[in-house]
Design a protein that fits this description.
Layout: H1 6-23, H2 29-42, E1 47-55, E2 65-73, E3 77-82, H3 89-102, E4 106-111
Helix pairs in contact: 1-2
């Protein structure tokens, strides 16, 4: 079975490894966001960063809030970054909720907070 958007996700993961290898762990998330943005550009990937998405509930016409995903790459892959010691189930749930809100099928949850 072929993974959806495999070429894009491989480039994102490679860029993430490059960032982690250079910076290590211990920085705030925004530092990793900026470094990853540079690496994504170097990899020839287009992306939107910190795009806000309204969240709707049932048939309400007005949004009940909004969320910001760290990156949407090539309009197809959601990327959520963390800089914490250990990922928890709530972080995975966040990505799954973002995929639903942004109407995307593929997402990556990348943690820069621990050792490689």
């Amino acid at each position: 079975m072929e993974l959806k958007f495999k070429e894009i996700t491989e480039k994102i993961i490679g860029a993430s490894f490059e960032v982690h290898q250079f910076l290590g762990n211990g920085f705030q998330e925004v530092i990793y966001q900026r470094a990853l943005a540079w690496e994504l550009t170097q990899a020839g990937l287009s992306y939107a960063r910190e795009i806000e998405q309204d969240i709707y509930y049932k048939r309400l016409k007005e949004p009940i809030g909004s969320r910001r995903a760290d990156f949407v790459v090539e309009g197809k892959v959601l990327v959520e970054l963390k800089a914490i010691i250990e990922l928890e189930d709530v972080h995975l749930a966040q990505v799954l909720n973002y995929l639903k809100a942004y109407m995307l099928e593929v997402g990556l949850l990348i943690n820069f907070g621990s050792k490689s």
